[in-house]
Amino acid sequence: MTNLPFFLRRVASPGGARPPMFVLICILSFIGSGLSAFLYLVMALNFDLVVTQFESGEIEIPQLELFLTGGMAFFLLESLLNAISFIGVRYIWNKKLVGFHLYTASQLFLIFVPVVFLKGHPFMVADALLSGVFVLLYYIQLRRFGLFDSNVGSLDANS
After folding, report:
1. Residue 18: φ, ψ to 5°
2. Which residues span the domain enclosing 30?
């Protein structure tokens, strides 16, 4: 156990130590959801400026035109869903079952929002598989904590 990097060692928590796999997937989710929420929000707040610069040729980013077809609403919705995902992981970190449901719902919506908002955007199987793997890993970890038992698995945020 001592050969593991410090961030993968068991982290103390009120209910006992957190397993390294649990810590790892939470950290990865915090980074991914947090950065995505921030970046999509920045893009939404600067949407008109980006469109103007893209149309004038000042910005040349591959696939940017596809993302701009979604409009500001696409970026705001992506930011909101990633923020909900982040909040869900925060609840999961505290071993609250409601976090799993928030995270899972937001990930499902994040899979389909680009297909609905972006013209010509195909369904991304890789995104769906990656989200599915994380949901499955969270399910396995939370099941180990006993959160899916009938008496413990309340949807109450304080449970």
Report:
1. -90, 130
2. 16-144
pTM: 0.82
Rounded (5°) CA angle 89-18-6: 100
Of 109, 95, 103, 157, the residue nearest 135 (C-alpha): 103
Residue at 11 is within a domain: no
Summarize pLDDT for 65-117 with one digit per residue, the tens. Answer: 888 889 999 999 999 999 999 999 999 999 899 999 999 999 999 999 999 98
How many structural domains does the chain have? 1
User: Tell me, what amino acid is at 73?
Assistant: A
pLDDT at 61: 84
For residue 111 the two structure tokens come to 């899979």
Give the pair of three-digit tokens for residue 5.
């990097």
Q: What is the distance between the alpha carbons of residues 104 and 86, in angstroms, rounded to a whole number?
A: 11
**Residue in the structure block whose two tokens are 């199987």:** 125
